[in-house]
Amino acid sequence: MQPAVIAPSILSADFARLGEEVDAVLAAGADWVHFDVMDNHYVPNLTIGPLVCEALRKHGVTAPIDVHLMIEPVDRIVPDFARAGASLISFHPEASRHVHRTIQLIKGEGCRAGLVLNPATPVDVLDYVLEDLDLVLVMSVNPGFGGQAFIPSALDKLRTVRERIDASGRAVRLEIDGGVKPDNIGAIAAAGADTFVAGSAIFGHSDYADVIARMRRAIVAGG
Ligand SMILES: O=C(CO)[C@@H](O)[C@H](O)COP(=O)(O)O
Ligand SMILES: [Fe+2]
């Protein structure tokens, strides 16, 4: 397993003070910035785009920016995010006509590529493309909103994807997104996740360092 990564979802940050909020979670021990992009089409919510990603880079953020695209179509916006400073770009297979082509497009733009599995998306969507991916993101809520409850079937899906990643022999990250809290992150880690997105659990807490430290301890303890 690769070292654990904690990626706060800025969807739950105070957007009026976004630069300061990102600085604060990184200073509090976060590893990546999780950047949720919603289009009011693929998902029923509207958030932020490449301009905001670029603004964070100009503000001085050097940590990896983990862009989670919940948009349809996907391909047209990929070069914009690459230019804006995205490190990793993940997308939903239902939102791309040609999943393999989108993965190659992301990598051709110099970013790492991730594929996202919704709660009802079967794991076999990874067939023929796992060897090209840098990350698999298992959604433990339906995409579109922060603050939803963790869907327990995601644990079984994590175990299945973990087996497939290990069998591939490649260093593919396994990320979980949705309803992740200090009290369930141990079980999530034990099921095979190594990359943990948390929005409301981190930004909804007054002490970011405390909640991130509690998450890290629970990851190590597992179960
Ligand atoms: O992609 C999404 C939601 O679609 C997430 O990244 C959420 O923003 C996570 O928020 P919490 O469930 O942790 O509050
Ligand atoms: Fe997300």
Write the layout of secondary structure elements.
Layout: E1 5-8, H1 18-27, E2 33-38, H2 50-59, E3 65-70, H3 78-84, E4 88-91, H4 99-108, E5 112-117, E6 135-139, H5 153-168, E7 173-177, H6 185-190, E8 195-198, H7 200-203, H8 208-221
Description:
Strands 1-8-7-6-5-4-3-2 form an 8-stranded parallel β-sheet. It has a single domain, classed as Alpha-Beta Barrel (TIM Barrel), CATH 3.20.20. The protein starts with a strand and ends with a helix. It is built from 8 helices and 8 strands. The longest helix has 16 residues, at 153-168. It is α/β, with parallel strands linked by helices and 223 residues long. Helix content is 35%, strand content 18%. Bound molecules: 5-O-phosphono-D-xylulose and fe (ii) ion. Keywords: Carbohydrate metabolism, Isomerase, Metal-binding. InterPro entries: Aldolase_TIM (IPR013785), Ribul_P_3_epim (IPR026019), Ribul_P_3_epim-like (IPR000056), RibuloseP-bd_barrel (IPR011060). Its cofactor is Fe(2+); Zn(2+); a divalent metal cation; Mn(2+). Its EC number is 5.1.3.1.
